[in-house]
Amino acid sequence: GNSIAYKNVIGARRASWRIISSIEQKEESRGNDAHVATIREYRSKIENELSSICDGILKLLDSKLIGAASNGDSKVFYLKMKGDYYRYLAEFKIAAERKEAAENTLNAYKAAQDIANAELAPTHPIRLGLALNFSVFYYEILSSPDRACNLAKQAFDEAIAELDTLGEESYKDSTLIKSLV
């Protein structure tokens, strides 16, 4: 339940940040310098709040949650979460800080992906959620639409392939049962 509460706290601020940034651009293009200064102040207040929330969660993930994760499910879940919170930082940080947040996102998602591919079924909701967020990262943060699409498509194709084999197996089972009856 806790991760959902954090998601909402973060989600509201990320939404505010996006709205404020677009207002800031409009006011800037209109040359309303006084407005822009006020808006910037508010934007940096939101950025500070986002930074401290993300940093707090990332510390918790690194110091406790990831190390304590006992199975593939929870390891992937927490590493994905680590990637998510670094991605949220990468959304508004600039220059070297943005580069660092992006690298940390990539490393966390890659670590999660390695475990997911080895231990979770292609149709597992956490594995699919990871693929989705990883492709959002490629698209929004790294500006690589091709990689984003490939990653999402691969996850989709693997899931479909698994559903097909599951379908065939349950079909085989049912024909076996009929022949026994």
UniProtKB/TrEMBL annotation:
Residues 2-181 form the 14-3-3 domain. Pfam families: 14-3-3. InterPro entries: 14-3-3, 14-3-3_dom_sf, 14-3-3_domain. Residues 92-119 form a coiled coil. Keywords: Coiled coil. Belongs to the 14-3-3 family. This is 14-3-3 protein. It comes from Apium graveolens Dulce Group (celery).
